[in-house]
Known about the structure:
By secondary structure, the chain is mainly alpha-helical. The protein has helices at about 5-20, 30-35, 40-45, 50-70, 80-90, 95-110, 115-135, 140-165, 165-175. The chain is about 75% helix and about 0% strand. It is elongated, with a radius of gyration of 18 Å. It starts with a helix and ends in a 6-residue tail after the last helix.
Amino acid sequence: MGIRDDQRERVITALAAHLLATGLAQSSLRPLAKAASVSDRMLLYYFRDKADLLACVIGRIVDGFAHGLDSALPATPMPPEQLLVAASRLVRSPAMQPSMRLWLDIAAAAARQEPPFPAIAARILDQFMAWLEARIDRPEGPQRRQQAALLLAVIDGLALFDMAGGSEQAQAAEQAVATMQFL
Length: 183
């Protein structure tokens, strides 16, 4: 790896920490450059444009989140009820909350059609749908995909409760999840 690549990696690492701490509110070029201790022109030296920068940094965050999920949950497929309970507890943990806050921020920006977030959100959804599908112990096919989509919707709903101050509702929903049955 050359000096430019090393510096780019350092910038990505600094910006990942910045976005996890501040969300998208501080994602214009000047605050990003300040967080990375470089000029805004240097950011554009390392990345084609702001969309490329955000895609790279958010991709790194998502990879870290996925690694956390992989480390905490076995790759062995399990019944969807068990997977839902385990994944829900994990994403509600203090260690995962910064990533979940950022995910909800990205989803909101995508809903407003703010470039580049619709494309970034779609990639994240695809990645986590695939992650869930691979861990559901059902035959491949539409039913497994539907169950993965349901799990993702419930997990994201719990995160929304937590982030919006509804921890009591999230706790009640998490308790209800423990008794759910899938066909």
